[in-house]
Amino acid sequence: MLGLAGAAACLFPADESAQLSVVLDPVPELYLKDTLRLNARVLTVAGDSLPGAVVSFTSSSPTVLGVDADGKALALGVGTATLTASALAFAGATPDTATVRVRGLIEIDSVRPNIVRFGDSLHVYGVGLNPDSLFTMNLGGVELTAAGFVPADPTKPGRLGMLSAWVMPPAARFSTLTMVSFAGGVAFPDTISVLQRDRYEPNDTTATFLGDVPLAFYNPALAFEPKGRNEAREPADWFTFRNAATSDRSIIVASDFVGAQTFSVFITDSLAWSQGAQNYIVGSRSWTIGPQTYLCAGKSVTQGGQPVVFKEQVFPITIVALKDLPAGTYHVIVPYLAPAEPTAYQLLVTAQYNSSIPRDALEENDYCDVAKPVGQTAGATLTIDNPHDIDWYRFTRNLPTSVSVTATAGSAVSPNLPSPDLDLYVIRDFTPDSLVLVAAGTTEGSTEAVSALLPAGDYFLVVVDFAGSPVQYTLSSTFLAPPMEGPAPPSPSAASRPAATPSPVMGAKLRAWGAKRGRP
Length: 520
Fold this sequence. Notes:
Layout: H1 4-11, E1 21-24, E2 30-31, E3 35-37, E4 40-43, E5 55-59, E6 65-67, E7 72-75, E8 79-87, E9 96-103, E10 107-112, E11 115-118, E12 121-127, E13 134-139, E14 142-143, E15 145-151, E16 160-166, E17 174-181, E18 186-187, E19 191-198, E20 208-209, E21 216-224, E22 236-243, E23 247-254, E24 265-267, E25 271-274, E26 279-282, E27 288-289, E28 301-303, E29 306-307, E30 317-325, E31 328-335, E32 343-350, E33 372-373, E34 382-384, E35 390-397, E36 401-409, E37 422-430, E38 434-441, E39 447-454, E40 457-465, E41 471-480, H2 506-513
Parallel strand pairs: 2-9, 11-19, 20-22, 28-38, 33-35
Antiparallel strand pairs: 1-4, 3-7, 5-8, 6-7, 8-9, 10-12, 12-16, 13-14, 13-17, 15-16, 17-18, 17-19, 21-32, 22-31, 23-30, 23-32, 24-27, 24-31, 25-26, 28-29, 34-41, 35-40, 36-39, 36-41, 37-38, 37-40
């Protein structure tokens, strides 16, 4: 058998080799440590392959792309190399070349869009973007939260793909996106411009409508903007959503930065902005749920003509979970005491009941419209199922009555939480005119008792956990008619009821909330 070089020389004389050309098979992008078998053919002028022709391969950058004598390529370093395929024994044959790119462990090809706002999704295209292999991803030094990853090849998620991330405050107006992999690769792409407001602004005086939210709405990168130099009122963000039909709902507002200065209030029925008063106005039949802010029929509870606050420890997270919320449009308002720079908070609205511990059988009773009869609490295990859960109960007495109520809490569900500290409030129900606090038990401890002599009338009993620890508790109540020493006093007439108070103005409450964090 003849040698390949000699056989080729016999088939095609050397002096005619200039009519030959080498054609290199396409070479794809490679990644570090990839190997590839190179292939090429020697063609005649007619386009026929020359039998027995031998092709050799060389690399312009052996430290990037190495090639051995058998035509096997190995990706050794990040960069580009020119691969040349030449025909042995045919010096005049035209060689073929290809530029081969070797990608690193992490690279960014492009970022879209180039200008973003807080709460937008930033889409990054490149290599090594799988969140499982990233050590950090930040924009101008602010850590980003991955929103999703789509690999170009699902079998090789460490290669090409698109990573989406939430743009978090307080990234600077011109910020550099930095990504670091576990293997130590670092990438610095072009500068991204950040607009210093979140994607829903301005929504302080005009609500952002989230729609029906059939499953969930979530955005972890909303912003508390700085207060303007000429703004007298405290800022707030205002959202609405619609229940197309009765369904469970949970609203969660959280901030790792603002903490106790952040409050969320959940409002039903109506909320309006008064341009003249430069404040929010709550509807006359609304109820609200939120840390230290509970209204019934548009009225706050008063004592001696002054509003009463149901004291609670305030946490960086507020969870309002409601069972069987009726169809309708509902409002979420997130007020804040303005920080010096844009600060992130997150909002989650779900079509389910999210709670720290299982809800009790009497839920829903988180607002006065759905208060449960006190008689139903006998023998029942009740729950404060979230840090800002509040339970409303109701009872009616046709005669003056001596009432004694005791609430006893179990242990906190986690050793990391403070011990439960239940408080009780007995409220005379004069709705829609007013609500008047007639007795309260706010001593420190997991057991609370309240006793009072009550005139005939309608009442609410409200249970709050000042410590904010999700906990199971029990209620015991005793109602006794006192000995009669004369005619029973008549029930107060409408004329003797406390004067009706106007619907609360939310702006005034926001300014006062920061000072209302201690116990009464």
